Each structure stands twice: as structure tokens, then as C-alpha cells.
Amino acid sequence: MRETFRPETGPEAGTLGAAVEHGARWLAYASGACLFFIVVLTCASIIGRAMLTLGLGFGPVPGDFELVEIAAGVGVFLFLPLCQLKRGHVTVDILSGWFGRWGVAVSDLIGNLLMSIAAGVILWRLIAGLQDKLGTGEESFILGIPVWSGYALSLVGAVSFLLVCLYTLYRSWAETTSAAPGQA
């Protein structure tokens, strides 16, 4: 079986690639901060519940689950751009060894086209949800946080995800045109 061709997934080439990677990396750091916040909040709430049963005057963090819901959603959206840029989504490479370099490049191009379409649909529906929540003025039950705030924060990641998808589509097109058909 032939060796599978996978283009370099290290630092992106060119000014555009470097800017895309820089932005995606910082969004991933923000995603990590969201996840770290979830861990600290959960631990504080669990310790507070334990202190409450011991009668030490502490209790769980009020609205902890509301904050976890928002931070988890935002964290996922903020990580999607880097995942897409680094080809971190699930791929099926069972037959790619037989396709050769050009076949793998074409399959990556098709995959990136489909992912760009999916990112566009996700962004469209997220905007629709944001508009709906802005219109209703719905708030979380315990803390009274406007529900639209989670949508708005997630919008940053969703827009970036679509932009990175379009960049990876461009990158795949360049890889496809540079690989000759039938090339191993």
C-alpha cells in the first residue's frame, strides 16, 4: 500500500496563513480559559456544598450550572477554528493510501467544502437564535443572565470558524492544483 500524502500541518505559510493561525490559536487559549473556569467553578461549588453539610457557613456557588452551560458552549465554539485549521476533525483514511497525492488533496478539498457549508449553516442558525433571544429578553433563572449573552459570545467563535473553513478551502484548492492527477 502507498504512503498517504498529508500536507504539513505545522505553522501556516504566508502572511494570511500566519494571521489565521495566530487568531485561531488565541481563540483556543480563550477556549482553554473557559474550560479552566468551569473546572474552578465546579470545584468551588462542590467544596461549598461539602462545607454546607458541615455547617461551616459556606454553600455552593449560586447559579453554577448556568455559568457552566454558557462557558461550555462558548468554549466549544472558540476551539473550532484551530481544530479546523490543524485538520483535527475526524477523517476516514482507510482508502487514501490508494488515491495518491492528488486523490487525497481532492478528498480534503471536498471535506473542506462540506465543512465550510456546515459552518455557514451553524453561523446562520446561531444568528437566528441570537435574534430570537434578544427579542424575548429571556434570562437565566438564578443569576438573571440574559440568555442572548451566551449566543453573542459564541458568535465570535462561529464567525471565526467560518473564516477558517474558507481559508482551509482555499488551502485545499492550492494543494489540489499543485498535485498532479495520478501522482503517488
Automatic annotation (TrEMBL):
Name assigned to this protein: TRAP transporter small permease protein
Family per similarity comment: Belongs to the TRAP transporter small permease family.
Quaternary data: The complex comprises the extracytoplasmic solute receptor protein and the two transmembrane proteins.
InterPro entries per record: DctQ (IPR055348)
Its biological purpose: Part of the tripartite ATP-independent periplasmic (TRAP) transport system.
Alphabetically ordered keywords of this record: Cell inner membrane, Cell membrane, Membrane, Transmembrane, Transmembrane helix, Transport
UniProt membrane topology term: Multi-pass membrane protein
UniProt keyword annotation of Cell membrane present: yes
GO molecular-function terms, A-Z: transmembrane transporter activity
Localisation: Cell inner membrane; Cell membrane
Sequence intervals crossing the membrane: 26-47, 67-85, 106-127, 147-170
Species of origin: Aurantimonas aggregata
Claim: Cell inner membrane is one of the keywords in the record: yes
Upper classification of the organism: Bacteria, Pseudomonadati, Pseudomonadota, Alphaproteobacteria, Hyphomicrobiales
GO CC terms in record: plasma membrane
Tripartite ATP-independent periplasmic transporters DctQ component domain boundaries: 38-174
Pfam family, one: DctQ
